[in-house]
């Protein structure tokens, strides 16, 4: 009996010790290891879900959408929480997501991973088919995909977003903070199959992005893109661009580049297609600069529109300044109409280099236009202290100074806004901004009258006429600088002008880069595109003609080609 009693005591003592050990272990886990165990549990079943904010809409000045976000679904998996997956399920999932079974198995293989993307940005209908497979650990979440209704005609301006919804190019990048908004979050508890069991904290709602209203008019953008594309193809050119400005406010109503790309399908996107040439490319403007030394001379009383000038060929040191079509005498107006290098340079050389630099600087040359586009350039205007006489002469007709097309178009606001240089903007503004005075209103009026002769018979830009309207402007043809030398077989043809010339509403600048279709003169290759863009835009805006009776277009095939080259 004593032996049996001792055994019972021993067993009970052992059980008691085990019980005490369990109590100690439980206390240890509940107290000392509580944070560790809680974190381990959270890592397996607690999830913080990102609630995506809807990216802001980009709209044109009339509210037409140019960039919108549409809801899509992303399929992801948690290999660490997955159970066994059959071959049939893997095969079905691979077929739906257009992956190979090997790719799917590779994503499932690392059991230490808590999150892996299977397929991003698929349709909600396809996502439902995936979830119907019932694979443990496979889940979906909502995202947004950017869609661009304007397609290729505005792609370099709008830019695009990446798969993560962040802006990568253009205004999508420049206005990222405004458009992106702020994502929200939801803390949930999920079971091993990926289903939400409960919310563990209050939901933080996302804050959607703001709407960005551009100054661009989609109707005018269509016209500009169509005509630039047509000019590039017709002249077998390397590229082309066009800018349409409101001549009273400086708003950018259209800005087109070609070649272009479709931002909705970027599978074969080449770097050259992404270039917003009108804003980030620099070139020498050729004869489109001539109105500025003429305006400087008028402003300072050194010339009058009817004043006769000696326009014979002359020399500056070893260099010769000549015209394509020499004439011994021209009025100042004819210097503009006939695009005289001799006349513009003689006017410029009446001023010191510092005076000329100051005037060009006031007109915005060498300064960033600050339109709000990433990568925009300010051109190049060298310090006047290093100018030689021949360099000052060539700068009067557009060599030795570099500009962007947007910068050049902006400079012409000096003529349309009564002598004031206007700021330019990609966003719609409610009231005209104050400009910076450059010349007197009377000088600006005289310049408009003189520049109207360029599109009349005898001028270099007759192909830029618009039926029913007086058009002022200037053509330009410039040789390109290659390897430090000007080459004879590469040119840029340009036309910049405004209409109605008596009360300017629009400024249009067109550039055709390296035309190879037989002609390369600005009036010939860029003038017709200018005419079509300007005429169509004025009609769209309902602008009343300022010359409805006396303006008759001469058929293009009857117009002589005026060969102007600087």
What brief labels describe this structure?
33% helix, elongated, alpha+beta, five-stranded antiparallel sheet, Penicillin-binding protein 2a (Domain 2), Beta-lactamase, single chain, 566 residues
What does this structure look like?
The protein has 566 residues and is an alpha+beta fold. The protein has two domains: 48-97 and 114-213, Penicillin-binding protein 2a (Domain 2), CATH 3.90.1310; 218-259 and 275-558, 3-Layer(aba) Sandwich (Beta-lactamase), CATH 3.40.710.10. 33% of the residues lie in helices and 20% in strands. It has 20 helices and 19 strands. The mean pLDDT is 88. Belongs to the transpeptidase family. FtsI subfamily.
According to DSSP, the number of beta strands is 19
- Compute the CA-based radius of gyration: 35 Å
How many helices does DSSP assign?
Answer: 20
Shape category: elongated
User: Largest sheet, if any?
Assistant: 5 strands, mixed
Query: Can you tell me the number of structural domains?
Result: 2
Distance between the termini: 128 Å
Task: List unreliable stretches of 5+ residues.
Answer: none
* CATH fourth-tier homologous superfamily of the largest domain: DD-peptidase/beta-lactamase superfamily
Q: What percent of residues adopt helix (DSSP H or I)?
A: 25-40%
Instruction: Determine and state the CATH class of the largest domain.
Output: Alpha Beta
Q: Averaging pLDDT over every residue, what do you get?
A: 88
**Secondary-structure-derived class:** alpha+beta
Give the oligomeric state: single chain
Strand residues, percent: 15-25%
- The assigned CATH architecture of the largest domain is 3-Layer(aba) Sandwich
- Which topology of the largest domain does CATH recognise? Beta-lactamase
Keywords: Carboxypeptidase, Cell cycle, Cell division, Cell inner membrane, Cell membrane, Cell shape, Cell wall biogenesis/degradation, Hydrolase, Membrane, Peptidoglycan synthesis, Protease, Septation, Transmembrane, Transmembrane helix
Family: Belongs to the transpeptidase family. FtsI subfamily.
Domain Penicillin-binding protein transpeptidase: 240-534
GO cellular component, one term: plasma membrane
């Amino acid at each position: 009996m004593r032996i049996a009693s001792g055994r019972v005591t021993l067993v009970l003592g052992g059980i008691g010790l085990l019980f005490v050990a369990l109590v100690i272990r439980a206390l240890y886990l509940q107290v000392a290891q509580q944070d560790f165990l809680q974190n381990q549990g959270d890592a397996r079943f607690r999830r913080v879900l990102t609630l995506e904010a809807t990216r802001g809409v980009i709209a044109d000045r009339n509210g037409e959408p140019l960039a919108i976000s549409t809801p899509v679904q992303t399929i992801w998996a948690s290999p660490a929480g997955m159970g066994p997956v059959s071959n049939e399920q893997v095969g079905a999932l691979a077929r739906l997501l257009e992956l190979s079974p090997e790719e799917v198995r590779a994503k499932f293989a690392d059991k230490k991973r808590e999150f892996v993307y299977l397929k991003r940005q698929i349709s909600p209908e396809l996502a439902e088919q995936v979830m119907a497979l019932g694979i443990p650990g496979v889940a979906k979440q909502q995202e947004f995909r950017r869609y661009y209704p304007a397609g290729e005609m505005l792609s370099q301006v709008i830019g695009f977003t990446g798969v993560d919804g962040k802006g990568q190019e253009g205004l999508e990048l420049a206005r990222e903070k405004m458009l992106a908004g702020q994502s929200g979050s939801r803390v949930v508890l999920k079971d091993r199959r990926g289903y939400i069991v409960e919310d563990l904290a209050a939901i933080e709602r996302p804050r959607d992005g703001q709407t960005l209203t551009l100054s661009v008019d989609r109707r005018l953008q269509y016209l500009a893109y169509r005509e630039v594309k047509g000019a590039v193809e017709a002249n077998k050119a390397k590229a082309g661009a066009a800018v349409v400005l409101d001549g009273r406010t400086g708003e950018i109503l259209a800005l087109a580049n070609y070649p272009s790309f479709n931002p909705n399908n970027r599978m074969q996107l080449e770097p050259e297609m992404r270039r917003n040439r009108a804003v980030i490319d620099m070139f020498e403007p050729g004869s489109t600069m001539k109105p500025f030394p003429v305006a400087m001379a008028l402003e300072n009383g050194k010339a009058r529109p009817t004043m006769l000038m000696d326009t014979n060929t002359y020399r500056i040191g070893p260099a010769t300044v000549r015209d394509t079509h020499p004439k011994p005498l021209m009025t100042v107006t004819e210097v503009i109409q006939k695009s005289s290098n001799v006349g513009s340079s003689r006017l410029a050389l009446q001023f010191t280099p510092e005076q000329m630099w100051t005037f060009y600087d006031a007109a915005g040359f060498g300064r960033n236009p600050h339109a709000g586009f990433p990568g925009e350039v300010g051109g190049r205007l060298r310090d006047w202290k290093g100018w030689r006489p021949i360099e000052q002469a060539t700068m009067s007709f557009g060599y030795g100074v570099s500009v962007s097309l947007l910068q050049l178009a902006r400079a012409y606001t000096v003529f349309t806004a009564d002598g004031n240089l206007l700021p330019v903007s990609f966003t719609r503004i409610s009231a005209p901004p104050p400009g910076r005075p450059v010349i007197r209103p009377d000088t600006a009026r005289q310049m408009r009258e003189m520049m109207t002769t360029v599109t009349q018979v005898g001028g270099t830009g007759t192909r830029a006429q618009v039926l029913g309207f007086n058009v002022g402007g200037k053509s330009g043809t410039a040789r390109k600088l290659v390897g430090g030398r000007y080459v004879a077989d590469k040119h840029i043809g340009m036309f910049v002008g405004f209409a109605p010339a008596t009360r300017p509403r629009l400024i249009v600048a067109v550039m055709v880069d390296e035309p190879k279709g037989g002609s390369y003169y600005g009036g010939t290759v860029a003038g017709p595109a200018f005419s079509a863009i300007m005429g169509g835009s004025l009609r769209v805006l309902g602008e009343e003609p300022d010359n409805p009776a006396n303006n008759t277009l001469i058929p293009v095939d009857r117009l002589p080609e005026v060969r102007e080259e600087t």
